[in-house]
Amino acid sequence: SVRGDLLQIDTTNSVIWSETGRMVAMIGLDNIIVVDTDDALLVIDRGKSQDVRKVVDQLKATMRGELS
């Protein structure tokens, strides 16, 4: 699944979602999720996608609630 201005070379089984209009280039990656928004960039192994909640909790704990 892809959205945005992307360049992928030898990249498989990955999800790339970019809402910023900036180019996302990926080379030689497998099983990666990339979410690029105006206020944050998340790069995570697909096998760890259930751990996104940990990132949100950490952001809230450090007063970065605007990112959650």
Summary?
The chain has one domain. It is built from one helix and six strands; from the N terminus they run E-E-E-E-E-E-H. It has one helix at 52-61, and strands at residues 2-3, 6-9, 15-18, 24-27, 32-36, 41-45.
Report on this model:
The protein is built from one helix and six strands, in the order ββββββα. The chain is flat and about 35 Å long. The strands form two sheets. Strands 1-3-5-6 form a four-stranded mixed beta sheet, with no helix packed on it. The protein has one domain (2-67). With 68 residues, it is an alpha/beta fold.
Topology, element by element:
Layout (H helix, E strand, L loop, with lengths): L1 E2 L2 E4 L5 E4 L5 E4 L4 E5 L4 E5 L6 H10 L7
Parallel strand pairs: 1-3, 2-4, 3-5
Antiparallel strand pairs: 5-6
What portion of residues is helical?
10-25%
Strand order of the largest sheet: 1-3-5-6
**What characteristic shape results from the CA principal axes?**
flat
Radius of gyration: 13 Å
Average pLDDT rating: 87
Tally of domains: 1
Number of helices: 1
